């Protein structure tokens, strides 16, 4: 990304690292897409591939690696240690490693990427941007669980929340569009994708969010169960004779929309099935919207009102049926959706509330990469000034 004008020069990534069929996907500034298959055994090889294509004569966006001034990394879990983005040092890496138990599937590859970049570009500064950092402003009564306090002190078991970079971007962007002061607004941000979460944002700070200790809690998602009675979990484990690992796979990978519908985790396929009369698909859609609505209502109560409701993420930006279902029946709160504006709207910034509505309903496409780039630029420039 060219930070002078915040122009996206290229985007892409590497998938299936260490597995058969690994590949690099790359999209040029002109929209042309390139797919390169290869044996990508580890993260350092994958990043080396990325740097190679970025500087190639045929597909590149820069002439040489010396043009790279800084590197920003998305890191899923920062625990209670990180409440903002940070310049990455050996000490910071050590603290990130302390958070591995909180995100054993996500933080190790995040760290591998950081270490690989350190090896390939040792003199380029790196910045870590944490998914959990934005929610560190939650008050204790919102993030604590009703379990023995000793377990919180011993293991850090509490609500952390995720999608913080997305919630931060869309809430600020919505206020820019509406011309209002971010620090005075009550905002409910709905990030709806295969993973989904809702955040309550009051006066510029996250005060509650639906995801918890892990991304499993909260809304019904593509393959995640969301809110679920712990008693039901232990009951199923006993009846099915499964351990914790199998239970984690069941509730993270085989539940949610996929589990209820038996069709797919892809909302487009579920909508098609519903339109063709599939009862389970209809049930899944009703459950999905209903849970969003419950969280919106709960956060209105928690904040003493709401000024703006935002929809973002793949489903939030493109799912007009989901947006309509989530807002239906909330007119008494001043949340009034304009069905004509909402119908067919796809990935476009737009106010979809009725004219004169007390509460603005916004669709704001998220841009987490921009937030990472902005934080990286700001932190590196501060270092230079010092």
UniProtKB/TrEMBL annotation:
EC id: 2.7.2.1
Cofactor note: Mg(2+). Can also accept Mn(2+).
Top-level taxon of the source organism: Bacteria
Pathway: Metabolic intermediate biosynthesis; acetyl-CoA biosynthesis; acetyl-CoA from acetate: step 1/2
Keyword Transferase on entry: yes
Main location group: cytoplasm
Residues at the active site: 131
GO CC, alphabetical: cytoplasm
GO molecular-function term, one example from the UniProt record: magnesium ion binding
Role: Catalyzes the formation of acetyl phosphate from acetate and ATP. Can also catalyze the reverse reaction.
Subunit: Homodimer.
Protein's UniProt name: Acetate kinase
Species of provenance: Geofilum rubicundum JCM 15548
Gene label: ackA
């Amino acid at each position: 990304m060219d930070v002078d004008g915040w122009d996206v020069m290229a985007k892409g990534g590497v998938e299936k690292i260490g597995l058969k069929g690994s590949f690099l996907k790359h999209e040029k500034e002109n929209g042309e897409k390139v797919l390169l298959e290869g044996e990508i055994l580890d993260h350092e090889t994958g990043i080396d591939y990325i740097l190679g294509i970025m500087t190639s004569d045929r597909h590149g966006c820069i002439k040489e690696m010396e043009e790279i001034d800084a590197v920003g990394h998305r890191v899923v879990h920062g625990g209670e240690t990180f409440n903002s983005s940070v310049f990455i040092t050996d000490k910071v890496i050590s603290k990130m490693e302390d958070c591995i138990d909180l995100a054993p599937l996500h933080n190790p590859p995040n760290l591998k990427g950081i270490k690989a970049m350190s090896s390939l570009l040792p003199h380029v500064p790196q910045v870590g941007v944490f998914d959990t950092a934005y929610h560190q402003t939650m008050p204790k009564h919102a993030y604590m669980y009703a379990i023995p306090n000793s377990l919180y002190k011993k293991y850090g078991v509490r609500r952390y929340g995720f999608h913080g970079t997305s919630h931060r971007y869309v809430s600020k962007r919505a206020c820019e569009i509406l011309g209002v002061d971010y620090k005075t607004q009550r905002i409910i941000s709905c990030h709806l994708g295969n993973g989904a979460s809702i955040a309550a944002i009051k006066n510029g700070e996250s005060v509650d969010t639906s995801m918890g200790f892990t991304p499993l809690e909260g809304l019904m998602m593509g393959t995640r169960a969301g809110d679920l009675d712990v008693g039901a979990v232990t009951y199923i484990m006993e009846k099915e004779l499964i351990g914790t690992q199998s239970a984690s796979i069941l509730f993270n990978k085989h539940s949610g929309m996929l589990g209820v519908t038996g069709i797919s985790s892809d909302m487009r396929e579920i909508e098609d099935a519903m339109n063709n009369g599939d009862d389970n698909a209809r049930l899944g859609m009703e459950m999905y919207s209903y849970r969003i609505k419950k969280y919106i209502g709960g956060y209105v109560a928690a904040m003493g009102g709401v000024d703006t409701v935002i929809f973002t993420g793949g489903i939030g930006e493109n799912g007009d049926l989901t947006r309509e279902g989530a807002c239906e029946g909330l007119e008494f709160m001043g949340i009034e959706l304009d069905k004509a504006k909402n119908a067919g709207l796809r990935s476009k910034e737009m106010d979809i509330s009725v004219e004169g509505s007390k509460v603005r309903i916004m669709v704001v496409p998220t841009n987490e990469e921009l937030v990472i780039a902005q934080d990286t630029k700001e932190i590196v420039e501060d270092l230079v000034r010092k």
